[in-house]
Amino acid sequence: MKFEQLPNELIFDVFEYLNAIHIFRAFYGLNSRFNKLLNISFKFYHLDFRSVSKYTFTNVCQQHLPLIIDKVVTFYLADDDETPNLPEIFLSYNFTLDKFIHLKSLSLQSIRSFDILNKIILQCHHLSYLTHFKLIQCLFNNEENNLINNIWNLPKLIYCHIDDLMSKGICFSKLSIISSSIKYLSIKNITCDFRYLSHIFEQTPCLQQLCTTIICTEKNEKFQTTVPLLTNLNLSF
Length: 237
Prior knowledge:
Blueprint: H1 8-15, H2 20-27, H3 32-41, E1 45-48, H4 54-68, E2 72-78, H5 86-92, E3 105-109, H6 114-122, E4 132-136, H7 144-152, E5 159-163, E6 184-192, H8 194-203, E7 209-214, E8 232-236
Parallel strand pairs: 1-2, 2-3, 3-4, 4-5, 5-6, 6-7, 7-8
Helix pairs in contact: 6-7
């Protein structure tokens, strides 16, 4: 049996494991049935813009994304060497993250502009399904603490992963927003001391799991904060 002879339900099962870019590249234009399945019937797209050519990016944004933007559930946007300035180009097409109304997971990597990064995060504040957020190898400046506060202010966020920020030093002691939704937090390749750690717990009272690296700045430094809901703590020294 050929793939195109499979019932729609089985085709959808396969599509759920594929990047939307690969789906459109392989199946769009084959026949009217597949075009209808992709533009109308299929409900959940995973869109990953890492390591794509500018031609592919432009094609997806102009031809396909306007038709599926409310069906994208995971979105990965990166500013890498293969396609530099991708986030700026994305926003120049007048896309805003608040239009991704069913987005559940957002990953941002290697974004060099603080203004672009902060703009994207602010656009997510009204997303009702956004529970997963990753920030990886992004460039911060002196306004970095405002960005962290904006992340903590995402109303439905449960899983937060912050990794390898190219910053002069992120200061969690200035975190002023309390998140009652974040339960799982990973802070990779960024060091903080017990004072910062205590403040993170205070501003994230529902935290159940934390993974991070600790630097002891003083002898006999003690951690005195009570974290009633914490069930898993992974500290590297």
